[in-house]
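Budget justification aside, the reviewers requested a transparent look at the raw inputs and outputs of the sequence design task funded under Objective 1. We therefore reproduce one unedited record. The lines immediately below are the structure tokens for a 229-residue chain.
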């Protein structure tokens, strides 16, 4: 266990370090918003939120789950929704982690990903809440805007099209199969995250980042509607 003030054992440090190298290897060339630096930011933020949540948080599980949370995203693995969970569990078991810990981490990986505006994915553990909030925060604010446009470019979708309306996706399938624009993604996901935060610290940070999204959208529309001088 590694709550506040508790030091990781040598074995735990070794597991973290091997997992970090593995994740770096797997995500090295990613240009879809899931590059290593996304993982590095989520890891730091999840640990910071975990510490703020108090003594009982197992920071070892938080760190492992943050490192592994995007190891095999369904959007890039041929649509397999359970693969990330399976891969996380198998990886941790293979490098000698206990079945119990591997299961706790894999469950967080399963629940972390956003599955559509009308689909709730409720995190039951405080460790998972910290990781999910950190992942949500990285999709908001200045970095969130940058990631959205990077993803849109990778997908080849339009930046904006006033003739394509945004949709509230009612199921995970609908969300996965959607065809849209990057600006619509703000309405379909990014602006909804503020009200989905799980922790007090996450909610505080989300307010500022949400305001930045709104300010960006306002300015985007001002610039879109070119008027006579
Ligand atoms: P996360 O790693 O935060 O769970 P996702 O896997 O949903 O995020 O997506 C990776 C990044 O790409 C996020 O910043 C997300 O907002 C962005 N993204 C996902 N789908 C779209 C889309 N259809 N249009 C623009 N950006 C998107
Ligand atoms: Ni992520």
């Amino acid at each position: 266990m590694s709550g506040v003030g508790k030091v990781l054992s040598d074995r735990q440090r070794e597991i973290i370090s091997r997992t970090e190298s593995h994740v770096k290897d797997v995500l090295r060339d990613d240009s879809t918003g899931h590059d290593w630096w996304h993982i590095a930011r989520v890891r730091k933020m999840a640990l910071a939120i975990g510490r703020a949540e108090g003594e009982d948080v197992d920071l070892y599980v938080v760190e492992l789950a943050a490192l592994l949370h995007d190891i095999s995203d369904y959007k890039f693995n041929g649509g397999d929704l359970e693969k990330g969970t399976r891969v996380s569990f198998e990886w941790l078991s293979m490098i000698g982690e206990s079945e119990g810990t591997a299961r706790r981490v894999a469950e967080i990986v399963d629940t972390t990903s956003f599955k559509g505006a009308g689909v709730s994915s409720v995190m039951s553990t405080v460790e998972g809440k910290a990781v999910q909030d950190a992942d949500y925060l990285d999709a908001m604010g200045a970095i969130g805007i940058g990631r959205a446009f990077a993803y849109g470019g990778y997908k080849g979708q339009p930046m904006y099209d006033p003739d394509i309306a945004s949709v509230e996706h009612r199921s995970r399938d609908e969300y996965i199969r959607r065809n849209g624009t990057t600006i619509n993604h703000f309405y379909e996901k990014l602006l909804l995250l503020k009200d989905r935060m799980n922790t007090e610290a996450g909610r505080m940070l989300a307010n500022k980042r949400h305001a930045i999204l709104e300010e960006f959208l306002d300015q985007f529309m001002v610039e879109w509607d070119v008027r006579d001088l």
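The CA atoms of residues 101 and 219 lie 46 Å apart. The longest helix spans residues 200-224. Computational costs for records of this kind are itemized in the attached budget.
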